[in-house]
Amino acid sequence: MFLSSLIASPLVGALVLLLVENRDGRRDALVRGIALAASVLTFALTLAVWARFDPQQAGMQLVERRAWIPAFGIDYYIGVDGISLFLVVLTGFLTPLALLSSWEGVHRKVKSFAIFVLALESFMLGVFVALDLFLFYLFWDAMLIPMYFLIGIWGYERRIYAAVKFILYTMAGSVLMLVAIISLAYLHSVEHGTYSFDLFRLYELRLSPSLQFWLFLAFALAFAIKVPLVPFHTWLPDAHVQAPTAGSVILAGVLLKMGAYGLVRFAFPLFPDAAAFLAPHLAVLAVVGIVYGALVAMVQPDLKKLVAYSSVSHLGFVVLGIAAMNTQAVEGAIYQMLNHGVSTGALFIIVGMLSDRRHTRLIADFGGLKKVMPRLTAVFLIITLSSIGLPGLNGFVGEFLILLGAFRWNPRFATFAALGVILSAVYMLWMFQRVNYGEVTSHENARLSDLTGREWSAVGPAVVMAIVMGVFPTLFLRPMEPSVDELVRRVTSRQQTVVMNRLEPIVTSSLDVCR
Amino acid sequence: MLVSIPLLPFAGFLINALVGRRLSKTISGGLACLVMLASFGSSTAAVVSLLRLPADSRVMRQTVYTWIVSGEFRAPFELLVDPLAAVMILIVTVIGFLIHVYSTAYMHEETDAEYARYFSYLNLFAACMLLLVLAPNLLVMFVGWEGVGLCSYLLIGFWFQKKSAADAGKKAFIVNRIGDFGFVLGVLLTWVTFETVDFQALARAIGPLPVEPTFGTLSIIAMLLFIGATGKSAQIPLHVWLPDAMEGPTPVSALIHAATMVTAGVYLIGRNAVLFGHAPQVLSIVAIVGAATALMAATIGLVQNDIKRVLAYSTVSQLGYMFLAMGAGAFAAGIFHLYTHAFFKALLFLGSGAVIHALAGEQDLHRMGGLRRDLPVTYWTFVVGTLAIAGVPGLAGFFSKDEVLFRTYTSGHRLLWAIGILTSFLTATYMFRLVFLAFHGEASAPHPTHADQRKDAPPAMAIPLILLAVGSIVAGYLGLPHALGGANRIEAFLRPSFTAPAGAEASGEPSARAADIAQEGAAGADVGLERTLMAVSTVVAVAGIAAAAFFFLHRRDRADALAARWSGIHTLLGNKYYVDELYDAAIVEPIQTGSERMLWRGIDAGFIDGAVNGVGTIVSGGADALRRLQTGSVRAYALSVVLGVVLVLGYYLWR
């Protein structure tokens, strides 16, 4: 019941909020307090999951299973392993920060806002612990609803366009995934006589290479859009720019991770032969994304867009690590997901503080802030350095392990990806300089106030985490390792080279059919 | 115990960074100096216990904790002291301490908060530099390597309100990152090849391997690491950041951009001497790049008018000498020059700082002149430094530079030796030009301050100057060559650091010694040759000084006439061979415009989003059209049913 109560706890908070009468925003403070309390409690529960987690074990832990729709073999089946553990903790960690970051920025319909954020948190936790594909899909799509409203109601000028674009893009991918999931359940009934959505039973299906190829593509497209992988990324800059700060924090911090998580948990182990065949192609897109995202980030005039494109670049590293499929690369990829959640989450919080104060997100409107806001600049600097992978901070560990694993797999990919190390310094430091250094040129900037206590509480934990994860990475790597090793074994041991060679003509002929 | 060496300055950094703004200058500055002194004490203790060990097993290691473990990959956080590291920690703590003391006076006009910020960065730098030199593996070294780069970035841009300072800091960081690209790939290839990144384990693994006659894996690793070194040590083609780095406070230029950080590239090669010894082709590249950089920077130094820029190019040039030595396989000679250079270049920078301090920030040589009367301590110490760098016999620079040139000659690089000699002439000339323009004669433009306002260095600045001057004289005697009746003790001391550790030796006797072919040649020293070459360098140095005296002391009109006659070359040198402009036009501009016009507005907003929005328009347009079909008129529906039936029947009939 432990994981179930974890998933339920934000929802309970949301239910309590429903009961609070908040006419004309008179009880906003109470609403915020309840929401924060619920999210902090949830975070405590995620920490308790970590505490109960046995780092020696590779398999699923804290498993709960109950028949749900027996006719179709659908179960309520949840559990965590070393791969999902820290994503669960990350979700718990970021949600209170997201709420704190929008404490004053959101002042319309505070109650609905809090309810949506809490509901979103429940669904996100559900996605990471679901072990039944039907359940997973349910959480996956449920998540879109609160996010859609968060962008559409509390966003900036073009929020409707961004919200619709976000939902259509994501739906396009997830519909195909639904088809693939149902196909898998059907294939299970063909092989074993009964339907099943149980992930581990589906792992054992014997699928022909060409079937694997198409099913992998269906899953991978849904995940690639979510990551987002170039060229499926253009919903992201719009969604980020238009979303309120809390939305951006959660979107960048947790939602994007689900694409990569999906590749690791579903696409690769379910279809190992197709994965082996398509991994180099995925890696090409990842490497292109690393360089492309960085170059486009460099020329963005808008702070939020810059951070959004930097996400494209950083998530490219994650996908590269997954494609390489060895211990270092996958551990690096998971670590990079956590890093990106911490640093990019913090970057969006910082940008939110700036735009709350100045009502602009244009880099050109700032300059010389170090003089007026030395504390904010110091925090900004640490997060910037973490984002560009300075050793001693979190970003380095993830990037380095990914590069190491990728280099083992294919030095060319790693070499091109390493260009991202140069480029990230270029766009981040240039942005940092234009915002914080130089003379204060506008009188509006001269009067800005430094971090408040509430803002410290939003960004301080992220700074601490950036340092802890950079200095003591084994705290996180060790519990991951057994599960990652098992995953790598599962994916690579079932790849049959014979089959792989047979795959190529099949694929080309199927592509011919398409033409 | 070793951990206290970097940890003490790090503690100083933490205190000044967290509560420094509330401390008085005496306390924050005093604390920063004190931790450096304590770190020097720790270093001395470490070196003393190292010296007690037998000469061929002088290694001490300490494990701090396990940093990164992932599968078979292990990067434990450890520290290591061997002779090479011992020399480095002494340089860093001694020079670092003196520069901290000097800074307490130099930075005194800053506010308390800024003062504390300055010292926190300076302490952090020292901690990172010490970590860099104490690192036992490539990954821990990379932590220090990036850490010093960060401090360099922060300190160059210390006066962040100045755009030029902020720009210079960013440029330094980014150019260094280009080098780091090579460094990181080198680390990756090292691990994939040897499954370790530990220096000693690597030396053991590489020692028995044959020397690579062609460009194999070892050579690629060495080359990648060397790319990292060119970034940090400002060698061609990544030298462009160092002159701009002079935007930082002058003590920073002395510590980071002259004495310590910029030598990290040289140190990296020394640390991996066995690897580089197995890659003779890369060594040749190192030597050629070093010699070319030495000459190029010296020629630019001839015509610069900013006192710090002259010194900056001089640093680039001297670093070139160090790489020349490393490339010639004379690792000890390279480190020896690194060590003497740290003294006299720190001295020269601090001296220029005293001048700038006395002239209220003026850095233009043409607005100085005659300063020796007002600033005697600065003048005399500066002259000592200049004599040392010019290679005048008896001073530190003479012994080390001579060692570099001699080893270059005996390693067979005759042409590079000639370039070294030419550079040596230019060095004497541009350095004495600086002395004559700043301290002798009259200013060609009015002084920014009145003579009676100009004060010589206060004690906190004067004492470091004097101590460094003493160092610039005596430091060289540690490497007094056999040819002059010495024992070249520093070379003997350092030698174990450059050879494969015992154990590997037995199986690979010939190759293990490949690293120090040059040293071997020197052991049976051709004393006559060495003395001849020494005489040549002495003559060249004196000639260089004479040339400077003629053009800049006696007949400045001749210098101007010369510049006018060769105005093309003069402009070329004045503009630093237009390398910055070239990089801007060939790399920076195209990437920026390309990213903005093509990638962002073209592909992203135009093509992909165009397609996405196009699909949206088609779908909603199609839906709109379909909506119009639902007219509600029964006759229209009936008609369409009939049409449908006809079409289906027609299809089957005509099939």
Explain this structure to me?
Chain A is mainly alpha-helical and 515 residues long. Chain A has one domain (2-498). Chain A is built from 22 helices and two strands. In chain A, strands 1-2 form a two-stranded antiparallel sheet. The longest helix of chain B has 51 residues, at 579-629. Helix content of chain B is 73%, strand content 3%. Chain B contains 29 helices and two strands. Chain B is mostly helical. Chain B folds into three domains: 1-136, no CATH class; 137-574, no CATH class; 581-654. In chain B, strands 1-2 form a two-stranded antiparallel ribbon.
Brief overview, please?
Chain A is mainly alpha-helical and 515 residues long.
Strand order of the largest sheet of chain A: 1-2
> What overall form of chain B do the CA principal axes indicate?
globular
Largest sheet of chain B: 2 strands, antiparallel
Rg of chain A (CA only): 22 Å
Number of domains of chain A: 1
Q: Which structural class matches the secondary elements of chain B?
A: mainly alpha
Number of helices of chain B: 29
Helix content of chain A: over 70%
Weakly predicted, low-confidence segments of chain B: 504-523
Q: Runs of chain A with pLDDT <50, length 5+?
A: none
N-end to C-end Cα span of chain B: 92 Å
Secondary-structure content class of chain A: mainly alpha
Order of helices and strands of chain A: HHEEHHHHHHHHHHHHHHHHHHHH
Number of strands of chain B: 2
Strand content of chain B: under 5%
